[in-house]
Every structure is written in structure tokens, then in C-alpha cells.
Amino acid sequence: MSAELISILVLVAVFVIATTRSINMGALSFAAAFVVGTFVADLDADGVFKGFPGDLFVVLAGVTYLFAIARANGTTDWLVHAAVRLVGGRVALIPWVMFAVTAALTAIGAVSPGAVAIVAPLALGFAARYGISPLLMGIMVVHGAQAGGFSPTSVYGSTVNSIVAREQLPGNEGVLFLASLVVNTVIAGIVYAVLIRRGKPAVTAASPVTESGPETSPEREPEPEPEPEAPRLDAPRAATLVGLLALVVGALAFDLDVGLTAITVAVLLSAVWPQTSRTAVAEISWSTVFLICGVLTYVGVLDEMGTIDYAGNAVGDIGVPLLAALLLCYVGALVSAFASSVGIMGALIPLAVPFLAAGEVGAVGMIAALAVSATVVDVSPFSTNGALVLANAPDVDRDRFFRQLMLYGAAVVALAPPVVWLVFVVPGFG
Predict the structure, then answer these.
(1) What is the per-residue pLDDT across 26-50, written as a single tens digit (0 to 9) for each?
(2) What three-state secondary structure class fits 209?
(3) Rounded to an integer, what distance in angstroms lies between the CA atom of residue 313 and that of residue 327?
(4) Any residues with CB less than 8 A from the CB of 343 and at least 6 apart, and which?
(5) Is 428 in contact with 175 (CB distance < 8 Å)?
(6) Contact 393/285 with Cβ under 8 angstroms?
(7) Residue-wise pLDDT tens digits, 68-94
(8) What are the Cα distances from residue 306, in Å, to 37, 42, 56, 232, 337?
(9) I need a surface site. Which of 71, 224, 338, 364 has the fewest CB within 10 A?
(10) Spatial separation of the C-alpha atoms in residues 319 and 272, rounded to whole Å
(11) What angle do CA 69, 72, 78 make, to 5 degrees?
């Protein structure tokens, strides 16, 4: 049995054991990375740790640290009330507001995880307060980020377009952008229609909500409750808002690292107002950080030992262009659910060059299908975006929420590749 096949079987075993024995999957993955890396791939400790996602560790810890402070000093409550006023009390419209905001951020140049890191904590805090499904809110934020993610000025879009130019393939920046925009908007619309009514019954698109919560039905006679006073913008909250704005501007305008910037802002706020920040470090979602970093360390071992290239080359050698195109879309979706989306696109597009050059499959449609397949799955809890959603969801059963995100991610991995293949690849065949 080849080393690549052994590493794939170990990955399957990690999933099965973690699911059936309630062991943190990150711990299992670290153990698997050590065993497979040392005894199968002949890697030393440096080789095993090469795949440790240090940047993601800092992003997850830094963003959850900063927003723990924002929750403690009441900034998130103030923002929730402001959001209610913004949509005239129509709380069920907020998921679409969050979708549009993240789409705009990525379209103008924000890295997708950076946009999600900024928007997800606010969106999920709002969902918790008003009884909107956190799964719905997280999905809307992530798909919003991917909807704008392939504009010509975006990180993903400029990366794919440069790869296409380097490989001397025909490309179309407008088609690439519209493909991602339309697919993610349609998926978000379907998810919204299915999940919006899982929150409180009064929270519908037509039901106004006061700042104290959803209005009750006129048929009921609830006990009157005093409406809580809207939070005021005091000095700690104003400073936190300035810090959040600095995080956004630093990420977008100056390409500053989101995690390091968030930690710096959090430390400054803690130094000035320690009374509202002393418990923030304990509220970092350490179990989620452990889980994600462990899994991605093992994926790094797979990459180091050539397993990912092995799978991609096996697909590319099939010899049936349409089938190879479909399988490449599946490989992109599956691997991207655990690893860097932009990295996977950089690997898969060159693998598709041989049969694209033959002209049997349209290059523009195939590239759009690969790009969408490799990014639409980013709501998976093992991807950066999904991990940020999982880490920032307050007042949820985290294990249950993890399973929900994992099942939704699995459904997208199963369904998205054939759909985009039918829409973008099959019409250009022959």
C-alpha cells in the first residue's frame, strides 16, 4: 500500500474516531500528523510542524479576544441596536445586510477570511440576541464573502486571473466574478428561505422588531415588560468602535494581518479599561483553535508528502475530459474544505491545462467551475471562514453547531461541483 493511500485512510479514521468517541479532532489530527509524518513520510518534527497554520491560530485567537472585550464592555449591544435602527426594525433582513457587507469587503480587496473575521462576530452576536439561527447567519456571512470574492480587484480574482495568464489560457474576468456572485447568492437565498423561520416565530421579514426584541403577536396577552434602555456610547465603547474601524482599515487599506491587528487593539483596550477585559482571554475559543490547527497540520503533512498532488494527478490522468473536469471540481471542493482555497486553485488550474489545451473543454467555464467549487465550501468548520464562524458564535452548543456546519459543508461539497460543472463546463464541451 502506498504512503499516499495510507495517509488518506488515516484521515478517514480521524473523522470516524472523533465522531464516535467524542475526542477533539484536533488532538487526533496532531497525533496522526506525528505518526504518519514520522513513520510513513519520514519527516522530522520541523517537517510535521511546517503545516501548522500559525497565521490562522493568531487570527482565531486575536479576533475572538477582541470581540470578547467588545461583548464585555457593551459595544456589541450598541451595534445590535444600531443595526435594528438601520433596517427599520426588520430584523430578519439583517442576514442579507451581513451578506452584502462581506461581499462588498471582499470585492474591494479584503481577503475573504479577513472580511469574515470582521463581520462574523457582529452578525452572530445579533443572531443570538434576536433568535435568528446562528447557522443561517454564519452561512450568509461566508457566502457573502465568496459572492464578492472574484471581482477583478479581489484577492481571489486577481490570483486566479494571474494564474490563467501565466498558463497562457483564455480567461474572462467578468465571467469569473459573475459565476461566484450568482452561485453564492442563489445558495444564500435557498438557505435563507429554509432557515429563517427556525428562529423565534415573530422574527420574519415582515415583522418589525423593537430594540427590546421581536414584537409579540396581537393574539397573545404577554406580561408587560419594561423596555431596556438602549446602550449609550460611552468612552470604552467608542474606543472599541475606533479599534474595530482600525482593524477594518488596517486590513483593507494597509494589508495588515487581521489577527495581529486584532490582538494589538485588544491589548490597548485591556490596558486602558482592565475591568472590562480581565476575563477576555479565557473567552477565546481555545477548543476550536485546537481543533482547526490540528486538522490543518495534518493536511500540511499530506501536502508535504505529496498526497494532494497524488490525488490531483490521478484525476487528471483519466483521459475522459468531461469526467476529469467533474472530478477536479470534486477534488477542489473536498480539499478546500480543509485547506487554503486559493492554494488549491493554484494547484488545480495547472493540472487542468493538458485537456484545456486540447480544446475539448472550454477554458473559461472550467476555470469558473474550479474557482467556485474550491471556495463555495468555505463554510466548512475546517476552513478558515467556517472556523471563524464556529469560534465567534455565542450562546450555542458548540459541538452541535460544529456538526451543523460540518453537515452543511458536506452537502455543499457533494452538490456544488456537479451543479457548476453542468452550468459552466458541459455547455463548452466539444
Answers:
(1) 899 999 999 999 999 999 999 999 9
(2) strand
(3) 11
(4) none
(5) no
(6) no
(7) 888 788 887 787 677 767 777 687 888
(8) 12, 12, 23, 56, 18
(9) 224
(10) 64
(11) 100
Give the whole-angstrom CA distance, residue 294 versus residue 27: 6
- Sort 45 into a burial class: Cβ within 10 Å, 0-12 / 13-18 / 19+: exposed
For residue 260, give Cα distances in angstroms to 13, 195, 200, 308, 365: 35, 35, 37, 30, 38
Spatial distance between the Cα atoms of 96 and 48, rounded to a whole number of angstroms: 41
C-alpha cell at 227: 423596555
**Which of 225, 229, 264, 214 lies closest to 78, judged by CA?**
229
Q: CA–CA distance from 197 to each of 133, 219, 257, 304, 359 (Å)?
A: 8, 19, 37, 45, 47
209 DSSP β-pair partners? 214
Could you tell me the three cell numbers for 112? 475573504
User: Element (H or E) spanning 423, and its range?
Assistant: none
The predicted model scores a pTM of: 0.71
- The label of the residue with cell 443570538 reads 128
Q: Distance of alpha carbon 417 from its chain centroid, rounded?
A: 18
Q: What letters, b where the CB count within 10 A reaches 16 and e where it falls short, cover 101-126?
A: bbbebbbebbbbbbbbbbbbbbbbbb
SS3 213: strand
Dist. CA 374–CA 272, nearest whole Å: 43
Q: Report how far residue 34's alpha carbon sits from residue 299's, in angstroms, rounded to the nearest whole number.
A: 12
